[in-house]
Amino acid sequence: MSDDLEHFLRSEFAARVQDATPPVDGLADAAIGGARRIRRRRRVAAGAGGVAAVVFAAGAVAWAPLTALVDPDGPPVASDVTAEEAQQEFDVEFVAERQGEYGVINTDDEFIPLSVSDEPTAVDRLAETYVASSPETVQVVSLDGGSSIEYGLSSTSEFATAEVRSDAEAFAVSYTDDAYEPDRWLYDIYPGGIPEEPEGPSTLALDYSLNLLDWNDSLVVLSADLISTSGGASGGPYYFNEQGNLGLESIASAGYQAAVLADYSQDGYVCVSDLEPGTSEAGSEQCGQIGDPEIDTLLTEAAGGDAASADFVDEAISRYWSVDEMIGLPDDSGLWDSVYDREFNYTDPGSQWHIAFDPGDDVWTLVDSSGDEPVIRELTPPEGALFPVRSYI
Q1: Is pLDDT of 146 > 90?
Q2: Where exactly are the structural domains of the chain?
Q3: Contacts (Cβ under 8 Å, ≥6 apart) of 47
Q4: Are 57 and 343 in contact (CB under 8 A)?
Q5: Roughly how many angstroms between the first and final C-alpha of the chain, as a whole number?
Q6: Residue range 164-212, pLDDT digits in tens
Q7: Which of 13, 40, 103, 329 meets the CB 3.0–4.6 Å disulfide criterion with 113?
Q8: Angle at which helices 5-15 and 27-45 pack, to 10 degrees?
């Protein structure tokens, strides 16, 4: 199984949008999640050490007591954990339905209404707001529930998901829309707060082979297949955007000064495109390894003199390569499948926990990754809980 399976799957699912009946919500992410697990296993087996979204496992199994699943050499099973303990120990917040209203049960056990009429597919906690995603809209709600703003999505969009910037100050909604921009992943980028005078989003229209890793006010970091073309060589110029029609010009049009392509098979290998903000032009790329003085200098210059650009890109790449190591379950313990073969799987962006459950479960599985070794715990969620909030603060 090749390391580019994730990107192939995204392309395949998106390409079939027009020819297939609408898939079960989360199917694309399920397959992608499986590809990530496969990639993780390959890295662990080879002795190598190691951007989060809701992952829906492809299958479901009947609930069984965790003690029956534990391998003697695997992680221990700790005592049960109540909702209150999860809120206090791990800062877990829960999306819940109470008296016909959807909201967030925060760590103070307060119910914060989300101002949505239908059950959201995901809720993310940003610096100052909650972002509630649904197939047709994204609702941004203040932490006290007192104010909100709604952004509408394209009626023909598929696989719409929210992706949060690493500083939790902005988010992007990714989707496909052949009526607007055929054969592209679209990223609508919004501020994370509630502006007094709302404006439309800035939109990136990128080739299916690219994945958004992170961005700031000056540059955008993407994962891409570079090695198959460049062979890992330093220097340039290369013409990935021109030859592959990657859509980097949309990043320039959105006002960004640089695009950084990070290879998804070689950690730290990047190609930098110095853009002209506000134009529809993207020139050639220069390639090399993060940490190399020439590449770091090029990044700084391309990002308008921001000396922290190289560190920002390095951190984005590190998060990409470590996303599969968050849970820390041994591959041969039998616990990996017992967690992932649940219908719903949620991973904390801060790597403190992973929660899995099947519909109707009164008890959820919580993998406590806050210590040196992962610990399996049984979590009793609060009344009406639907799923946990993903917190980026």
Answers
A1: yes
A2: 5-218+306-391, 219-305
A3: none
A4: yes
A5: 34
A6: 999 999 999 988 887 777 889 999 999 999 998 888 899 999 999 999 9
A7: 103
A8: 170
